[in-house]
Design a protein that fits this description.
Layout: H1 21-30, H2 50-53, E1 58-64, E2 88-90, E3 97-99, H3 103-107, E4 112-118, H4 125-134, H5 147-155, E5 165-168, E6 192-194, H6 211-229, H7 235-250, H8 264-270, H9 274-288, E7 292-297, H10 306-330, E8 337-342, E9 346-347, E10 359-360, E11 364-370, E12 378-379, E13 381-382, E14 389-391, H11 396-406, E15 414-417, E16 420-423
Parallel strand pairs: 1-7, 1-8, 4-12, 5-6, 5-7
Antiparallel strand pairs: 2-3, 4-11, 8-11, 9-10, 13-14, 15-16
Length: about 425
């Protein structure tokens, strides 16, 4: 159960509206594709680098919604006025310590990559989440695509029967902050949203429809769609048709979404929590070739009783991340899978009167591993109390660019939106090269 505490952040951005997978996928084609009014979006598909699509790499984002405390996880400050009650513990990398609630990741620190110097300059749930997931703020006339949609386009295959982007977000808190949009990339790169379970609704063919009827209906739909598309050179129409074709193809991949296909011993290793089971599903999907999977775990927004919140949630994160790391390594997938753990911001070093920590964007941490990143590396540092970045300051753009570069995507690549070239990251933004193998 997600705890609620004094000082709970009650912004209306936490309200949600549930959508079934099919209705979302089809709606995106006609509406969300356009992103912002007045913008004309057109892409030259021939410009996509075929070599990148053949890398076979995947990204798993562990989205820690609400903002976990770096001081209770990746950047502890024991003994300081801001440090809180928890100690730090040594790790497998000499001189590097983590919070005492993370013993499993501490033993695997030599395979982990930490960035302790993030200054994202935005401490609002919705705007901060948007920026961390897009690498920059939207413009007035241009909405940028979510990182998952972009990676689905760059690393996915047009003929694939598995989705390009799957998003799990079962808790309600903060869900509305992370509505992923493909924007000008097109509806076919929108995520498959699984908020109410791990099996997409309406995936199975109804028992009273024969396979022949199913085939005939699909052929009729294709015929009508082709006639409608004649003389209508709209990107929205093509994108909608592509999204429908992907949905139809998914019906043959139903076993992918059945976690019962995993041995009970593996399921037990990840633990009984919903988060653990969804992360196992994420590994399963990466293994099947899904380029981007997001698993959200809410709610870290500990304005009150911060230490009780983290005492409950950090050990789960610690165990699930460690299990995923081991599982990927044992399957030979660690070099081809990037795992990224972050929220929209961190939490204040100052402890408020409700024994909580508030929103804090000025000096916080992001953790990642896999995909050839430098294991055991710690980039940047904060001052002794964690109030400011003392060395190696980076922002959302650098995180975004580093993830892209780690999976073989050139951050300086450009798309053509109408007649305007749009780079994947803002000009001047570079990946953190010292973290890349």
């Amino acid at each position: 159960m997600t705890p609620r505490f004094p000082g709970f952040c009650a912004t209306s951005a936490h309200d949600i509206s549930r959508r079934a997978f099919l209705s979302h996928s089809l709606a995106v084609g006609s509406g969300a594709l356009l992103g912002t009014a007045g913008a004309v979006h057109a892409l030259d598909e021939d410009s996509v680098n075929a070599a990148l699509r053949a890398t076979g790499k995947s990204v798993i984002l562990l989205w820690l919604a609400g903002g976990p405390s770096q001081l209770e996880t990746w950047d502890p400050k024991p003994g300081r006025p801001t440090g809180g009650p928890f100690a730090s513990i040594p790790t497998s990398v000499p001189g590097v310590h983590l919070g005492e609630l993370m013993p499993e990741m501490a033993r695997r620190m030599h395979k982990l990559t930490l960035i302790r110097s993030v200054n994202s300059r935005d401490a609002g749930h919705g705007t901060a989440a948007e920026m961390m997931l897009r690498g920059r703020k939207n413009e007035a006339a241009l909405m940028y695509p979510d990182i998952g949609c972009l990676i689905a386009k760059e690393l996915g295959r047009a003929d694939s029967k598995v989705p390009g982007y799957v998003s799990f977000y079962s808790q309600t808190e903060g869900r509305g902050n992370t509505n992923a949009t493909p924007s000008f990339l097109g509806a076919q790169y929108a995520p498959m949203i699984l908020n109410d379970g791990m099996m997409p609704p309406n995936l199975s063919r109804l028992a009273n429809i024969t396979s022949a009827d199913h085939r005939d209906r699909a052929q009729l739909r294709d015929l009508l769609s082709a006639r409608f598309a004649d003389n209508r050179g709209l990107e929205a129409v093509r994108s909608h048709a592509s999204a429908y074709a992907r949905v139809h193809g998914l019906m043959s991949s139903e076993p992918l979404f059945d976690i019962a296909q995993e041995p009970e011993s593996i399921r037990q290793r990840y633990g009984p929590s919903l988060f653990g089971q969804q992360v196992l599903m994420a590994r399963r999907m990466a293994e099947a070739g899904v380029p981007f999977i997001r698993v959200a775990r809410a709610w870290w927004d500990s304005h009150g009783q911060n230490f009780e919140t983290h005492q409950e949630m950090v050990p789960e994160l610690d165990h699930v991340m460690a299990t995923l790391m081991d599982d990927l390594e044992q399957r030979g997938m660690l070099e081809s899978t990037l795992v990224l753990a972050m929220g929209e911001f961190g939490r204040t070093p100052a402890i408020n009167p409700s024994l909580g920590r508030d929103h804090f964007a000025a000096a916080w941490s992001v953790a990642m591993f896999g995909a050839g990143l430098q294991g055991g590396a710690v980039f940047g540092r904060t001052d002794p109390d964690g109030q400011t970045v003392a060395e190696g300051e980076v922002g959302p753009g650098e995180i975004f660019a580093t993830v892209l570069a780690a999976v073989g995507i050139d951050p300086e690549k450009e798309y053509l939106v109408g007649s305007r070239p749009v780079p994947l990251v803002n000009p001047g933004i570079k990946p953190i090269r010292s973290l890349l193998a």
